[in-house]
Amino acid sequence: MLETSARLLKLLSLLQAHREWSGSDLASRLGVTPRTVRRDVDRLRELGYPVNASPGTGGGYQLGVGAEMPPLLLDDEEAVAVAVGLRSAAGQGVEGIGETSVRALAKLEQVLPNRLRRRVSTLNAFTVPMLRSPQASAVDPSVLTELAGVCRDSERLRFEYRDHSGTSTRRIVEPHRLVCTERRWYLVAWDVDRGDWRTFRADRITPKPPHGPRFEPREPPADDLAAYVSKGVSTRGYDAHATIRLHVPLAEAEQRISPSAGTLEAETASTCVLHTGALSLDVMVIHVMLMGYEFEVLAPDELNEHITRSRDLLTRALERAAVSSDADTPRTPDDGDRTPGTPSGSGAG
Fold it and tell me: Can you tell me the distance from the alpha carbon of 138 to that of 41, in angstroms, rounded to the nearest whole number?
């Protein structure tokens, strides 16, 4: 029985991983006869999995879509525990597993019975997470799973979007991918009304169903979507841009400078180049100084003028502080000081 259950799991995994399988291919993968494959397929159907079969030499087996599929090996308590764990990982941007957690959660929520969905929702509603950073994104995990779903199904998404000033606009987009950092989630999508690619912060998105219709996916704006989003949120969205040479190895700079603060590229073994943005060149000076590395400005030249003004301002502040310190320091008696009534000379005459 244990061997049969393990084989059913492997068969189900194969059906989920490939669009269509021939009976002979499945038999070869499982190490059984085509007759055993047919029996196992019948067993999956009895368990509630819609497996379609097409006859003939060009036919095969295909896992149906659109039906609710019951959990195979998880009891109620285990299903709730897994769902809560995935929600926590998705909502807090756990490094390395965030996007995988969203995909897994989207699949799991499709198969949870209503009674378990209510338990998971209740537990999440009355749990207060302690986020790793006060700047961490407060995106609702249910929004993430909804966004992942329309990306997967290539359905147009309607939503209300709040910009940095709090102004809301209605958007219709063709969603492509979710991109996550340690702090925030972003949606890369084709904006239908603006006729161009846009990047949206997921925590500012309020979906407005129904979604659809389906669309034919476009070529993405870049092969490396993580780098595309990083450049967008750290550079393109600001009025002032700069290119800075940092006198530190790339690996060390990457530990301190997040993708949302700028894009880094290696230059030599001991230097790297930072492309970044800020609200103004004055803010840019502070932004670069706070990194704590030796640096030089490659562009624009105007940034050096702002650095000079900041240097002069700091120098004058230090000079004033030194003068104030001297004025407040009490003088100590020396050879030139005389206590009133003390003779100017001493000793036997």
Answer: 43
**What interhelical angle do 141-153 and 76-91 show, nearest 10?**
90
The residues, ordered by sequence, that sit 6+ positions from 287 with a Cβ below 8 Å of its Cβ are 261, 276, 278
Cα–Cα dist 324/132, whole Å: 42
pLDDT-derived band at 235 (thresholds 50, 70, 90) equals: low
Cα→Cα distances 50→23, 57, 128, 208, 336, Å? 16, 21, 39, 31, 104
Average the pLDDT over 16-20 and give the result.
66
For residues 302 and 81, what is the distance between their CA atoms, to the nearest angstrom? 56
Q: What is the mean pLDDT of residues 171-195?
A: 87
pLDDT surpassing 90 at residue 330: no
Residue partners of 70: CB distance under 8 A and separation at least 6: 47, 48, 111, 113
The residue ranking higher by pLDDT, 31 or 86, is 31
Residue 262 backbone class (left: φ over 0; alpha: ψ -120 to 50; beta: rest) = left
Question: For 240, left (φ over 0), alpha (ψ -120 to 50), or beta?
Answer: beta
**pTM across the whole model:** 0.47
Output the pLDDT for position 349.
Answer: 36
**Other Cβ atoms within 10 Å of 246 Cβ, number:** 24
Report how far apart the first and last C-alpha atoms of the chain are (Å, whole number): 122
State yes or no: pLDDT of 24 exceeds 80: yes
User: What span, in angstroms and rounded, lies between the C-alpha atoms of 65 and 68?
Assistant: 9
Instruction: Tell me which H or E stretch contains 265.
Output: strand 263-266
What average pLDDT does range 99-126 have in this prediction? Answer: 67
Which two three-digit tokens encode residue 260?
């949302």
For residue 20, give both structure tokens: 């269509």
